[in-house]
## 1
Amino acid sequence: MATAAARAAVVVVTVVTMVVSVLPGAEGHLQMGAYNKTCPQAEEIVLKEMSAILGKTPDLAGPVLRLFSVDCFVGGCEGSILLDSTPNNTAEKDSPLNKGVRGYEVVDAIKAKLDEACPGVVSCADTLALAARDSIRLSKGPFIPLLTGREDGNRSVAADVAANTPAPGANITDLIAQFAKLNLTAKDLAVLSGAHTIGKARCSTISPRLYGGQNGSSSSDPTLDGNYTTTLRGQCKPGDESKMVDLDPTTPTTFDGDYYKLVAGNRGLLSTDAALLLDPATKAYVSSQANNATSDDGFFADFAVSFLAMSKIGALTHHKGEIRNVCSKVNPPSPPHNSNNAAARTYLNGGLLLLTLAAPLLLGFLFVGL
Ligand code: HEM
């Protein structure tokens, strides 16, 4: 009985949230089904392509999900992470902090399919957002109804990354502060970190925890479980750079709540995962999921809410951005007018000029005639 009432309450809250989010004035004017009229099959195409890609390479779900978060954290979810550097500008993707970010080719492949069906309609920012949403669903995580209508921004500056991205060794105070700048709470931090249930990290990222160097120390991180440290040392030798290890070694391609058991047991791979135990609010969330949860339902519902909040950050809509042709390049400036229009305008202007000059003459004749 109580369960039925609780479910009904969840449904009501969900519906209200969805309605509020499509009202004018809701964040950035994103809306449910922004492509319903212009490209009704858009979301279906993304799901089909992601299914085919992950069917061949399940490991790509993590990179795509991370790519989206990295995009949203710097300048908002407007596809700026996808832009290439140019001779005059080093782009976000070439910031040292984004060296391990991968999955760009997945977005390009899906955008190509979308453009085949509906040329120039779906933005790169939405392609990435929908692909990330589907990487969760296809890894057995929750389905998250996503607002769309994001347009692509054209600012992508490497120097913006450090100021807006939590550093790999950031402490819990810095992490919470970084999230607060984006209107995300400490709970969002604990919940979204749960994305580290899939995907990998490079040995270079975790070697300070294994061999010292973290915060100036010369030994391994005492907050990392000793047996796990030994296992990881077997996988990552000193000097291994780009070799990768699973964030969640038991179920590396399944989106589940196991992450919290790992963190609670001092086996969170990243120092920022371990840091969740050092703040009362984030620790309480980790403990509740690790010790009290009887299923992943609570985590999934929380993740959907926090993911939606993240997906709205800095979204550009209503012609504040563009629909990029190629996700790695801003569109070339369009010529002011095409030649036919220009000719028509010259003709029209000439006609108006003639009429203006002839008007006094015509009026003169009229008076003389009268
Ligand atoms: C507290 C904020 C966060 C920090 C400090 C952080 C940090 C990291 C780091 C250092 C890596 C490993 C990168 C490497 O070694 O190359 C990583 C991987 C990953 N992160 Fe996060 N992350 C954060 C938040 C998020 C969020 C919000 C999401 C998604 C909702 C996410 C999803 C992922 C995924 C899926 C991977 C694996 C990527 C792959 O397989 O290539 N992270 N993260």
## 2
Amino acid sequence: MIGCECGTCRSGDPRDRRLRPSVFIETADGKRLLVDAGPDLRAQALAHGITRVDAIIFTHGHADHILGLDDVRRYNHVMQQPMALFGDARTLEEIRSTFHYVFNPHTAKGGGVPQLELFAMLGPFCIGGQEIVPVPLLHGQRPIFGLRLGSFAYLTDCSAIPESSWPLLEGLEVVVLDALRERPHPTHFSLSEAIDASRRIGARQTYFTHMCHDLPHAATCARLPTGITLAYDGLRVAVGAAD
Ligand SMILES: [Zn+2]
Ligand SMILES: [Zn+2]
Ligand SMILES: [Zn+2]
């Protein structure tokens, strides 16, 4: 956190150096998907060698999940195609207004503007042979989407899982779940709320994400129940039956 001198912010443990939440998925048939495009997209792509992206799926339109979108123009150039973006209607509208110059017909075309194709996420859809199931979540009052791909689910930025979404979370092998901090927060799960949700989901392994500096990596992991740990930047996970 800018201007903070706490133990986590001054930590020498690389797992305490956290960029904004995002996940990169390689599907069984080789499609490369990004979930969200936060302000750190460029740094993350360079750090982790993400040289190609076939589509970006958005959980919601908050700044920490969309502000890296301009850098997608590099993928347009490398792959010689527009970038397909999937999101709910509100998120796509927020992308259109935040990146108004991209959608303004008077903006000069060329390498300086990303080419984006927007697709409304209305229910389960496929990219290549991979089915993607949007999972309705509540982020405070705002309805947003988590995503399920086979036996993997990514549920960031949530403070509640609606009753109707629980059947979509059965039989998961790996789940990534929001856990902001110890104290309650109006729009994010606290650590204990996330532990409760994780137990009910019952995946083999739960990774927490979107932590703030209140949760140092090593000390927090040491007191989490078996099967639950904090994710960290650069973590790679293989999920067996993701088809
Ligand atoms: Zn701090
Ligand atoms: Zn958010
Ligand atoms: Zn967020």
